[in-house]
Structure formats: structure tokens, C-alpha cells
Design brief:
The complex is a heterodimer of chains A (156) and B (337). Chain A is built from eight helices and no strands. With 156 residues, chain A is an all-alpha fold. Chain A has one domain. The chains are: A mainly alpha (156), B alpha/beta (337).
Chain lengths: 156, 337
């Protein structure tokens, strides 16, 4: 039995040519603008964190490490509240990595799935999907910290 | 005589062209602020519209557009022979649940964003084939339901690519009939799946353009027509990037381009709405067809149009496994006589 011949695409462009065409016509990310706005937004969040830490040390009399822990917790709370009000995704839209990398971004990545998947129930919705964004960060963050710790232990 | 309604490789020409008696659409607030705002029948005030989940909102939008399209055509719902619909959600739940409220023989379709053109083509085939005298053809999408299925939770902060498109919140239905007054479906070209190796799911326009170009080229070849036969050749949701690619591919394939090409995804939002490359989703072409295009046809500003739905047939599983995106285009010619 002879194999039936497929009618080739009528498009007179090869896959390779199309790939080049796509690269040429797809708009590039505005790198300089993105880097600058990430620097400004990330800088504002971190400076604000430092103000909170200083406030805790100078006015509440907390020790430096305790003030830093409390400051981080405060930032997480603010990130979570801003996510709940639907503001944080707008901050990241302009700030990019400047909004994702600070701990407020981590709060956003935990609260947004919690809000989103509540409709599928508390067990398989919130419980099952809470770590969909933060999970990979935790898995590889913790794994790499263990590896670095082991290396440090060996070469010390 | 067996294939007397077929022309060339992929096209069917209707002997008694089915008529679009009426169309109805429902859109979300963002679409209701766009350049086509005056062409929509119903604009929701927010993305939930008093429903508990976005999925329920999408089902309700689709149900509303089905019922009101029939009502607008003065056709009792129980005299419709088939209900054809599709959407983007897993197991096309929006369509299944909307059809549950309609109680008509139902054919669920999945053509991703090409679904409106697909349902219209199939509806016309059912009618001209003598299997039905009235058919409802619909499609829907919802920005938030699509985001949570294909991408991230809606409140998750991220920066979208400049070539990414914005899923339209919208549902559109048309009522096709074997007789009556209105624009007629004269021919349909069912597309083939083409995959030119695009793996970036944010660049759906680039994934779809070759398949759409293939369908358009075959349509013109099958019917021995040139683009200037139509007043407008309008693609579904290629967006700004995909639309540029389509024109370039058609030019390189030797089609004589006229300046009557257009794209629903480019038209539906203004640049101030900051959607990057324009609109996408089944609802995009569905609401532009049932609103803007039907209006222009009825006022005879447009006499002949070629409506080409474009769909990217990937899933979040296939894209995570690194597969490229297969795509399809279906063309329907709509003419006033």
C-alpha cells in the first residue's frame, strides 16, 4: 500500500524564515526603562523597610535582629493587604523585579493564589494551590541553601 | 454530484446561503470602554456581574447572548434545531453549562479563539445540508477565567510581554436560518492545523499567523478569487504582532494584498487601554462579528466580508512540556445581496 502524500502548506515561508520574521516583528522588552523602574520601585520598598526597622529600634527599643524580623513581618503584612486590595499587581506591572524580589512580592505570591482558589474550597483550593507560585522558589531556595551550607562546612 | 457543494481542496459553497437573522453580544467593562463600545448589546459593570465565580459569570454571559440572539430574531427558542457553542475553559464548561439552561440539541466545539468562525461555518453546513432550519452559533471567553486557567492567579504581580494579548471578556451568538432577511453565509473554508514551531505562549499571534495565512490562501485558490473581491478581510485575534506577520507571510506567498485587511484583536482595544498587542480569546471575534461587523453589513457599508477565526490549540500542559503551538484558521464569507 502506498503512503498517501500530504498536501504541503500553501504558505511559501519556511519555518526557519518564519522564525526570523517573528523575531524581527515582535516588540522587544524596553530593558532600560524596566531596569530603571525596577530600581526605583525596589528601592522604595527596601527603604521603607529600613524606615520600619529603624522605627522599631529607636522608638520601640527592639534589638537589631528582633527589629529586622518584625520589619520583615510588617512588610509581608503590607504586601498581603495590597494584594487583597488589588494594588500589588499594578505595582509589579510597572516595577517588575523591583516588586517581585522583595519580601512583599513573596507575600503577593502567597496571597494571590489563596484569594484566587478559595472558590475551589479550603482544602483542595486554598490548601492545594497556595504554593503554586511560591513552591518552586521555596524548593530550589532551600535546596541551594543546603548545598551552599554543606560546601561551607567542608571548606571552612 | 456527491461533492457538488465543494470547491477546490477545503472550501464549501452554499447552494442556498443561510441567513444571519440576528446577533447578540455581552462584554466586560474593559471592552465596554474600547473603541467599539457603541456596538455592544450589553456591557457588564464589573467582571463578576453579581455571580459568585468568574466561571459562572462567563456561563451567564453565554446563556444571555444565546437567548437574546433568538429573541432579537423573533424566533422562539424551541424552534431552533441545534445549539453550537465553544469556549476556552477545560471541557468547554462555559458552553456546556450555558447549554444546560437552553434545552436544545447541543454540539460543543473547541477551536480555541477560532470557535466563532467554526460554529458559524458548521451551522451554515447544517442548514444548507438540509439537517436544520435554524441554528444558534456562539462562542465566549472571560479574561479572569482564562488567566487563572492558562497563566497566573489574577492578583499575582507579573510583567506581561510587549507582544502578549489580552483575553477579551465577551460572549456572542448569531441565529442562522434557512430563510429571511439579513447577511448571508455564502461559503466556508475549514482550515488545517499548521505549526511553525512557536513555543512562547505569550506570542499567540505569531503561532496563529501561518495557519490563518494557509486558510486565506486556500480560500482564494479554491474559489479563484482575489482579496479585492471582499470589502473587508477580517481575522479573529492575531493581534498587532500576528497581523503584521500574516500580511508579510501572505505577501511572500504571492497574494496580491489590498488594504482591506483588518483584525478583531487590533480593533477591540485602544492603545490607551495598554493591552500590549491587542485582544484575544473566543469572545474577541465573537463580539466584533455580532456587533461592529453585523452593523456594517446591515447598513450596507460593507457588502462582502471574509471573517477568518484564528485559534491556537495548545494547553498549559503541552506548553509546560515544551511543545510548540499548533494553530488553525477557519474562514467564512458573509455577503449582503
Amino acid at each position: 500500500m502506498s503512503e498517501s502524500k500530504l498536501r504541503p502548506p500553501s504558505v511559501a515561508v519556511t519555518q526557519e524564515e518564519y522564525k526570523q520574521l517573528t523575531e524581527k516583528l515582535s516588540p522587544k522588552p524596553t530593558v532600560l526603562k524596566n531596569v530603571l523602574s525596577a530600581f526605583v520601585v525596589g528601592g522604595i520598598i527596601c527603604s521603607f523597610g529600613q524606615i520600619i526597622v529603624n522605627f522599631y529600634m529607636n522608638y520601640l527599643g527592639l534589638a537589631k535582629t528582633a527589629a529586622q524580623t518584625a520589619g520583615t513581618a510588617t512588610l509581608i503584612m503590607i504586601g498581603a493587604i495590597l494584594t487583597g486590595f488589588g494594588v500589588y499587581d499594578t505595582i509589579v506591572k510597572y516595577g517588575g523585579a523591583g516588586g517581585i524580589i522583595p519580601v512583599t512580592g513573596f507575600a503577593n505570591s502567597m496571597v494571590s493564589p489563596a484569594l484566587e482558589y478559595k472558590k475551589e474550597g479550603y482544602v483542595f483550593g486554598v490548601g492545594g494551590k497556595l504554593f503554586t507560585i511560591a513552591g518552586p522558589v521555596l524548593v530550589y531556595g532551600i535546596t541551594s541553601s543546603i548545598i551552599v551550607g554543606l560546601i561551607y562546612l567542608l571548606i571552612r | 454530484m456527491l461533492h457538488s457543494k465543494r470547491a477546490g481542496n477545503q472550501t464549501v459553497v452554499f447552494k442556498q446561503p443561510p441567513v444571519i437573522l440576528a446577533g447578540y453580544n455581552v462584554v466586560g467593562p474593559k471592552e465596554g470602554q474600547g473603541p467599539l463600545k457603541d456596538t455592544f448589546d450589553m456591557v457588564l459593570k464589573d467582571s463578576y456581574a453579581h455571580e459568585k465565580t468568574w466561571e459562572k459569570t462567563e456561563m451567564k454571559m453565554l446563556e444571555t447572548s444565546m437567548k437574546r440572539a433568538a429573541a432579537k430574531a423573533n424566533v422562539p427558542l424551541d424552534s431552533v434545531d441545534y445549539n453550537l457553542a465553544g469556549d476556552l475553559l477545560n471541557q468547554i464548561i462555559s458552553s456546556n453549562y450555558a447549554a444546560r439552561q437552553i434545552g436544545l440539541p447541543f454540539i460543543g466545539l473547541y477551536g480555541a479563539c477560532s470557535t466563532m468562525a467554526l460554529s458559524t461555518a458548521l451551522g451554515a453546513m447544517l442548514i444548507d445540508g438540509g439537517f436544520a432550519s435554524k441554528v444558534l452559533c456562539s462562542a465566549s471567553s472571560h479574561h479572569e477565567t482564562a488567566e487563572r486557567q492558562y497563566r497566573f492567579p489574577n492578583e499575582q504581580g507579573n510583567q506581561r510581554a510587549m507582544y502578549a494579548q489580552w483575553t477579551v471578556t465577551g460572549a456572542g451568538s448569531i441565529l442562522l436560518a434557512d430563510q429571511g432577511e439579513g447577511p448571508k453565509i455564502t461559503s466556508a473554508t475549514i482550515g488545517r492545523i499548521l505549526d511553525y514551531g512557536e513555543t512562547d505562549t505569550n506570542n499567540m499571534g505569531a503561532a496563529m499567523a501561518p495557519a490563518v495565512a494557509d486558510t486565506i490562501l486556500n480560500h482564494f485558490q479554491d474559489l479563484s478569487r482575489q482579496p479585492d473581491y471582499y470589502d473587508m478581510i477580517i481575522t479573529g485575534d492575531l493581534g498587532m504582532v500576528g497581523f503584521q506577520l500574516l500580511l508579510e507571510v501572505l505577501k511572500r506567498s504571492g497574494l496580491r494584498l489590498s488594504n482591506n485587511f483588518s483584525d478583531c484583536g487590533v480593533m477591540i482595544y485602544s492603545s490607551e487601554q495598554d493591552t500590549h498587542a491587542g485582544g484575544s480569546g473566543c469572545g474577541c471575534s465573537a463580539v466584533v462579528l455580532t456587533g461592529h461587523l453585523l452593523n456594517k453589513l446591515k447598513s450596507r457599508e460593507l457588502q462582502k466580508i471574509l471573517f477568518v477565526g484564528s485559534g491556537s490549540l495548545h494547553s498549559s500542559v503541552s506548553s509546560q512540556q515544551g511543545e510548540s503551538m499548533p494553530a488553525i484558521g477557519h474562514a467564512v464569507s458573509i455577503e449582503m445581496n
